[in-house]
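Here is one chain, start to finish.
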Amino acid sequence: MNNAVQHEMFLVYGRKKVQVQSLAEASKAWRHFVEENGLGASEIPAYPKIEHGPKVYHLSYNGKVWEGNPNNIGTERPQPNLVYNPYGANA
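Its structure:
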């Protein structure tokens, strides 16, 4: 019997919270929102993220999904890990 706890997944940006089934779906929904509203990188809601139980992932403007704090890039603090790339492994 599998007793693993199943957590719902949500894409969260601005005041919106949308249930999604996967990181890929969240990335696609995020990019749809950005493109539908004609937003540039400086115009997006602050800190778009994916909540999955106790885990929190962060989204880049381009739809890439990161585990860890993207604000740490280029610092001596722990670096974020790319966990989903909508453009393929080498993009």
